[in-house]
Each structure stands twice: as C-alpha cells, then as structure tokens.
Amino acid sequence: AMEAPVQRHRARYKSPGGPPWRETYRRRCMERLRSSRAKLLDRYRQAGEGPCGAAPGALLVQEVMEQEWQELRDRLPGLRGEQPMEQMLEDPDELAVLEEIQQELVLQEQSVIEEYERSLRFDEECLNAMLDSLDATDRVICPVCRKNNLTVKTHLVCCQCGLYISTQDMTEGKLRSLLESTLTEHSQRCLHNPEFTVTSGMEEEASLLMSCPV
Questions:
Q1: Helix %, strand %, coil % for the chain, to 5?
Q2: Are strands 195-199 and 207-211 parallel, antiparallel or unpaired?
Q3: At what angle do helices 61-75 and 22-35 cross, to 10 degrees?
Q4: How many angstroms separate the first and last alpha carbons of the chain?
Q5: pLDDT value, residue 133
Q6: Residue-wise over 95-116: b if at least 16 C-beta within 10 A, else e?
Q7: In this structure, are residues 39 and 60 in contact, taking their beta carbons and an 8 Å threshold?
Q8: Residues 198/165, Cβ–Cβ less than 8 Å
Q9: I need a labelling partner for 92 at 20 to 30 A (CA). Which of 10, 59, 98, 99 fits?
Q10: Which segments constitute the RPA-interacting protein central domain (predicted)?
Q11: pLDDT band at 88 (very low <50, low <70, confident <90, very high)
Q12: Whole-angstrom Cα distance, residue 123 to residue 192?
C-alpha cells in the first residue's frame, strides 16, 4: 500500500509528455537565453581574452536554468520547497528531463557563438580586402560599405553607398595614409575590428568616424 503513491508518482512523470512543468520550463529557459544574447557574447569575449584564450564551455546555461527554476517554483504548487533543482528532483526521470533541456540550451548557446564567430570572420575578411586594396593601389575601398571604391576629389570624398564628406586638399594618397595610420594605431591596442560610419550634427559637416564595438 505504501508503494502505490510512489508508483503513481513515477507513472505520471513517465508519461509521453514528461512532467507537467517540462514544456513551460523549457520554453522560458529558451526565451531567457535568447534575450540574454548580448550578455552571452560579452562573456564569450571576456573568456577569449583570458590567459589561455581557450574556447569556453557553457557560459549562461546554468544561470538561466536556475533563474527560471526559481520563477517556475513560485508559480506552480507542484514544485514545492526552497531547495535547488538538483535536490528537489530526486526521481531519475525528472533529472533526465532537466539534462535534456540543459543539452538543448547548450546547443542553442553554441549556435549563437558560432554565428558571432562567422560575423567576425566576415568583418575581418572585408577589412583585409580593404587593407589589400590600400597596399595595391591608390584606389581606396569605402570603409563604410566595404564594397565600392571611393571617389576622392580635392573638396569631396563620396561613395555609391551614400557616403558624402566635404574635404580640403584631399587626394587618394592622403586618404589612404590616414586610414592606414588609424587602423594600425587601433590594432596595436585592440584585437577586434573597428567599424566606420558617417556622422554629422545639425549644423556640423559630415565626418568619417571609426569606432570599436568592444
């Protein structure tokens, strides 16, 4: 008679849908991880700048799972007590559900990092192409769109992408030298690739601005 409630308890969690809290918890964990993309990439960059520079393991998964577990526990009466999830879920089937969700979150985190790495590689290839063009000829690739050659005149620098800057006594050689020295100075202090934009105020003329996302 004592074993009957335990058997019913296990049977309920071995149902095809799993524990009743499974889908709610899984969905909220995925949403929290997606909304924490900026935080994840910031931790990834910090881990990459460590002494070894080794690829980090899961950076946010455990934190996300614990935060969502606390919120779920407060809302669902079936999840009792104040213990952490590992102590509360002693049933092997319940723990298996947690492990399954954890693996799914780890894969999601890895896909975000891989997408970020692909973006970095693309930026680096574009930057290298611009530097190669600076070395090969006086023609200068637009640092904003990284596709078209700039048109450089004495009082004007412009590009098909919309870049339009008034200048004084400018030549392609001078502009190339300015870009080279600025990029070299930045690379001596930072390993990340800078970005170029055109900026202007209400009464100011347009300027070319180099900034670093890090």
A1: 55, 10, 35
A2: antiparallel
A3: 130
A4: 64
A5: 64
A6: eebbeebbeebbebbeebbeee
A7: yes
A8: yes
A9: 59
A10: 60-130
A11: low
A12: 10
Residue recorded with tokens 């335990």: 6
**pLDDT number for residue 54:** 46
What is the model's pLDDT at position 50?
A: 54
Please list the residues that pair with 3 across neighbouring strands: none
CA pair distance 140, 113, nearest whole angstrom: 32
> Which is nearest to 27 in space by CA: 80, 110, 101?
101
CA distance 73 to 81: 8
Please give the structure tokens belonging to residue 100.
Answer: 């399954």
Contacts of residue 12, Cβ cutoff 8 Å, sequence gap at least 6: 19, 20
Question: Residue length, the chain?
Answer: 214
pLDDT at 87: 53
Residue among 163, 170, 137 at smallest CA distance from 148: 163
Residue 156 and residue 166 in contact, taking contact as beta carbons nearer than 8 Å: yes
Is 5 a residue whose pLDDT tops 50? Answer: no
Q: At residue 153, what is the residue type?
A: K
Single-letter amino acid code for the residue at 198: V
Structure tokens at 201: 């105020």
